[in-house]
């Protein structure tokens, strides 16, 4: 039998409104009555109805999280950070998976608004003005995780991808490499818009190395794609001195292609990736990569949302977290 707030009130000898005040800490209640009510709640295992509680408190304890692909390893780490901070502050997570489609993003924004969520963490490859407007129209606090967040007047968390990519490319150049291939892990039509690609190009330019577009290849964010891109260069006998892939999975796929074709890594070709997924340190040779603080990005986003919900002061709208260049076997 499910215990109701009415049952708790009867057993504690108080009114339903008094039980509500104790649960929601909305109005003063004497310590004796509070202790009595809490004792009954503990003994009966009573769980407050979240919908009813949100009506009383005039806000829900749910944070909506919109992501483009729940199967992505990085999304899982991001969600861990969001969920842990949410749990610390008694917020539940309502997850929406959009597959990167703007129509799905808009649909889920409307769904979350209909559920009266307290806030939204919006994760997307590219933030669109339509989605920003849809969230703002609902007057819902939101934090965005997307590479073009700085183009909007919104709250966001990220790292400086252009700077990180620049640093990795310069690192490879300092290793004595001039012919450095860039494998773009994206299905976007215009790779010129990529911050990581910009960082790569700028590092070449600053080192007086001419951009060779024959070794700038575009695929998708899979190891199979990285394998095929590397195989294409091998078949064309256009083998670079180093490969910088803007995704660890692509980098690992490329590494496998070179090794399968008896091209030694790192002796003949050095390989670097981006993100530092868990397998990056487990493959052999272990992968040199840019470590993005994925968990921290999720955790900071959740904390920002909770501060916004509670109308607390935020130091900045755009939070930039530090990255780390992980120097491993694939470039040594």
TrEMBL record:
<dbReference type="InterPro" id="IPR028082">
    <property type="entry name" value="Peripla_BP_I"/>
</dbReference>
<feature type="domain" description="HTH lacI-type">
    <location>
        <begin position="3"/>
        <end position="57"/>
    </location>
</feature>
<keyword id="KW-0805">Transcription regulation</keyword>
<keyword id="KW-0238">DNA-binding</keyword>
<dbReference type="InterPro" id="IPR046335">
    <property type="entry name" value="LacI/GalR-like_sensor"/>
</dbReference>
<dbReference type="Pfam" id="PF00356">
    <property type="entry name" value="LacI"/>
</dbReference>
<dbReference type="Pfam" id="PF13377">
    <property type="entry name" value="Peripla_BP_3"/>
</dbReference>
<dbReference type="InterPro" id="IPR010982">
    <property type="entry name" value="Lambda_DNA-bd_dom_sf"/>
</dbReference>
<keyword id="KW-0804">Transcription</keyword>
<dbReference type="InterPro" id="IPR000843">
    <property type="entry name" value="HTH_LacI"/>
</dbReference>
<protein>
    <submittedName>
        <fullName>LacI family transcriptional regulator</fullName>
    </submittedName>
</protein>
């Amino acid at each position: 039998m499910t215990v109701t707030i009415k049952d708790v009130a009867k057993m504690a000898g108080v009114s339903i409104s008094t039980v509500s005040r104790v649960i929601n800490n909305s109005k003063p209640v004497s310590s004796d009555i509070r202790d009595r009510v809490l004792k009954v709640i503990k003994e009966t295992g009573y769980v407050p109805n979240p919908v009813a509680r949100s009506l009383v408190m005039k806000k829900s304890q749910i944070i909506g999280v919109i992501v483009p692909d729940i199967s992505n390893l990085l999304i899982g780490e991001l969600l861990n950070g969001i969920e842990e901070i949410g749990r610390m502050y008694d917020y539940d997570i309502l997850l929406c998976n959009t597959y990167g489609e703007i129509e799905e993003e808009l649909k889920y924004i409307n769904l979350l608004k209909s559920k009266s969520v307290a806030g939204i963490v919006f994760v997307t490859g590219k933030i669109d003005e339509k989605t920003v407007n849809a969230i703002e129209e609902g007057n819902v606090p939101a934090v965005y995780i997307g590479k073009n967040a700085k183009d909007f007047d919104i709250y966001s968390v990220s790292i400086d991808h252009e700077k990180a990519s620049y640093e990795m490319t310069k690192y490879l150049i300092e290793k004595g490499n001039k012919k450095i291939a860039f494998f773009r892990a994206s299905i976007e039509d215009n790779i010129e818009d990529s911050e990581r690609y910009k960082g790569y190009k700028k590092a070449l330019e600053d080192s007086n190395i001419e951009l060779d577009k024959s070794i700038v290849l575009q695929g998708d964010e899979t190891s199979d794609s990285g394998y095929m891109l590397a195989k294409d260069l091998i078949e064309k006998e256009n083998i670079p001195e180093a490969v910088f892939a803007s995704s660890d999975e692509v980098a690992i796929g490329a590494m496998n292609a070179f090794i399968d074709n008896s091209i030694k890594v790192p002796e003949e070709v050095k390989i670097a990736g981006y993100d530092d997924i868990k397998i990056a340190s487990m493959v052999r040779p272990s992968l040199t990569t840019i470590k993005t603080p994925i968990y921290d990005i999720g955790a900071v986003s959740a904390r920002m949302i909770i501060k916004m919900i509670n109308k607390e002061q935020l130091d900045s709208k755009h939070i930039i977290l530090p990255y780390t260049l992980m120097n491993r076997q694939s470039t040594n």
